[in-house]
Design goal:
The structure is a homodimer. Chain A is an alpha+beta fold and about 450 residues long. Chain A is about 35% helix and about 25% strand. In chain A, helix 2 (about 15-25) crosses helix 4 (about 120-135) and helix 4 (about 120-135) packs across helix 15. Chains A and B meet through strand 9, strand 10, helix 7, helix 8 and helix 11 of A and strand 9, strand 10, helix 7, helix 8 and helix 11 of B.
Chain lengths: ~450, ~450
């Protein structure tokens, strides 16, 4: 009997229970960016602590300057140590009107469970925890030590995580980090993600007159902050999707020919992708394919605009303030601190007369490329192949998981990014979903991975 | 005894009552742009009808496709007819947080009454009605016929007014229109406004993907509608405050040398104005003074922006839609239909690939210059001089009062724009105010004007 057999049996016998638990998890509106949700975020931490305890780990909530980190471990020493990372916080659910039901009322629709956080990251992280539970409670964890770190601030840039990891280096020592916060390449095409983009997220606040003015009486006399904001944000956008900040591309590592070939071999059809996103056409930097732009070229995206009259109809107001949130996705070897500095310098240069600007720094993250060799990646690939019935593909991803860099820099350990979600899971959008069969597959992958690694 | 004496005495003896009535008027949240306020807008119409009746006019509410027009008259025939125009609707009160008290809880603060609509236009229009009441009820209206037309859709561009005037040409026949919906030049410096800007107010809706996307996973693959919107709105803005639409300036009538001299003689101090608006500095089209830019040069102002995440903090969303409201103020002889056509053509030219745009036409208005000679203007100037103790100055204004053009085109009659408000009344802004002494002066001006004209 392979060590995975009793654990897989344990999973099979408790499918209903695991799904019920996930629904309970999804019912908690743990929106980390919303100060009004503080108590709910804490409830989610309690939930995770209790599930880690049930899995057989010594679990506790560790306070931070923000939301608590939930940590659990079972360590004997002298054998490979797996550190699982995930997050229990979720994105804001807005715009609420576009949800088919309440974002925190998880609903089974066909094969999917629909709720905020279903895929990002509650469903994925709980699949890993369930896999740990099955392994430990069935007595299958022969050769592996386990540590689990689930944070509550991933969606606000993990401000307290890096200091925590730095402080707790000894406790967190591990041989590999496992993260399930990415996607399969397509349904049934499992993927290990080896490249992630970095991020610089800024908010530009442009202020002019001390109060809103009548645009008829005062227009032409003062610089309108909303005029200024649109001009400034436009100035960031170079021709054909390029970013116009001077020096922005200096450190960009060109795509390797082998990567471009690999990308081109993936089962990707532009027409399917276009249908999925529902845009009039695809668009972006010239000279690169869609996958190359998504995965390996830096970008500039406006994430939010607000100024003046935002309701129905017309109001002839010259607004006193305009706000724009925007983010730049970075690729190796761009450095978020360097890009932030360049962006702020650029803002100083392009600020028109007659307004004052303030730049708020939201989160930043370094881009990352993780090695594709090594026993942990091989074990993960074998586990995924066994469960999905197909070898995983190696892909990159446009999102950021800053902690991958932190683990590398602080603990010297690489991460294996096991994608259980799907590209169309609506992470960060209304009607976020997660495939229930993939939820169960994720548990099985964890069981097989631990069995493989502990051989 | 001059005919004005008994009417002035009537006013004096009823000051408290008129102020109480104004407060009742201001308590009605007649926001014409808000469908939820329909009943309140109707209540304001009832109020006006009742005050016209009390003034001694035969008054009624006339239905339109939108909010009713209140009309009253007292006509004997064979003598000069004065048609008073005003509006009983108000701007939306938002942003509510900036008001010192509820916008529809009129509050006396020193010499001012503070409420939405205090100056624009309830306080001013009710001052004229009170002047009519004093004239008629004191038996002083010897030589003038009176008509009063108060509409409820001025703040949404008066969509039903021009058709009404066209339909009711016979009934509305008049020798002069009197409007109090402008300002004194400065406190104690009464003004007759002879020039108004026109307006084209558009809303640009940019749509891309069918739903909000994760900006990390999808950024670079599709055109971001908020990126596109900022680029497009920036493209409207030429260098140094010029409007970049091709042909935009073709019909602009240059300022006359005599006007520039008159403007320059007005008691205007840039430092005072700068302090009033509270901007870092004044700014606008090169080669023109601040007053020239405000009054006689066309402008482009963004009035509203909304897209993506507008709340606190960060959300890495690639929004599916972005909306920008903007307006262009026009000067003689620019034509709003021509400018709308040019703007829409320009939008077609600058729409980037990968998004679809829709243009919503909010209201439009023609610019206007009214003759400064004639008996009605002379009578108004004499009345203002008598009440304010100072000859009025002749000024222009950056706002639009489209009905001035309609009266000219449909009835062949010019308007006299008597400014009772003040430039810092916060029309369209929080804490809108109106000077109570000027409220009483306005009634007296109406009394004196009717006496003068009826001589």
């Amino acid at each position: 009997m392979t060590p995975a057999v009793p654990a897989r049996a344990y999973l099979e016998s408790r499918r209903e229970e695991f799904l019920r638990n996930l629904m309970e998890f999804l019912r908690i509106p743990s929106v980390s960016s919303d100060p009004a949700r503080k108590a709910e975020v804490e409830r989610a931490a309690h939930f995770v602590r209790d599930r880690l305890t049930a899995a057989g780990l010594r679990a506790e909530e560790l306070p931070t300057g923000g939301h608590p980190i939930v940590y659990g471990e079972r360590v004997q020493g002298g054998r490979p140590t797996v550190l699982i990372y995930g997050h229990y916080d979720v994105q804001p659910p807005e715009p609420l009107a576009l949800w088919r039901h309440g974002p925190f009322e998880p609903t089974v629709e066909g094969d999917n469970i629909v709720a905020r956080g279903a895929s990002d990251d509650k469903g994925q992280v709980y699949a890993l925890i369930a896999g740990v539970e099955a392994t430990l409670q069935s007595g299958s964890a022969r050769g592996v030590d386990l540590k689990v770190l689930i944070e509550g601030e991933e969606e606000v840039g993990s401000p307290n995580l890096a200091p925590f990891i730095r402080r707790e280096k000894a406790r967190l020592r591990a041989d590999v980090v496992v993260i399930a916060d990415t996607s399969q390449f397509a349904p049934g095409v499992p993927a290990i993600t080896y490249g992630l983009k970095g991020l610089v997220y800024l908010e530009l606040v442009v202020r002019g007159p001390k109060k809103d003015l009548h645009s008829g009486s005062y227009g032409g006399a003062v610089m309108n902050p909303a005029n200024a904001l649109t001009r400034m944000i436009a100035a960031f956008q170079g021709p054909f999707g390029r970013v116009a900040i001077p020096g922005f591309y200096d450190k960009v590592k060109p795509l390797e020919a082998s990567e471009r070939e690999e990308f081109a071999r993936l089962p990707f059809r532009e027409s399917d992708f276009l249908e999925e996103v529902g845009a009039p056409r695809l668009w972006g930097e010239e000279g690169y394919t869609t996958l190359e732009r998504q995965w390996a070229r830096p970008t500039f995206d406006v994430n939010g605009l607000v100024s003046g009259h935002t309701g129905e109809g017309s109001k002839t107001v010259l607004p006193s303030e305009a706000r724009g949130k925007f983010s730049m996705r970075l690729v190796p070897d761009q450095d978020p601190a360097d890009i932030t500095r360049r962006a702020e310098e650029f803002i100083r240069e392009i600020t028109p007369p007659g307004v004052k600007v303030e730049v708020l720094r939201h989160h930043g993250a370094s881009p990352v490329l993780v090695p594709r060799g090594g026993p942990a990646v091989r074990a993960a690939a074998a586990a995924m192949a066994r469960v999905f019935g197909r070898e995983p593909v190696f892909i990159r991803e446009g999102g950021s998981i800053p902690v991958v860099n932190t683990f590398k820099n602080e603990l010297g350990v690489d991460s294996v990014l096991i994608g259980l979600g799907l590209p169309d899971d609506n992470a960060h959008s209304p009607n976020e979903k997660f495939s229930i069969p993939d939820f169960y597959r994720g548990m099985a992958v964890m069981v097989e991975f631990l069995a493989e690694l502990g051989k």
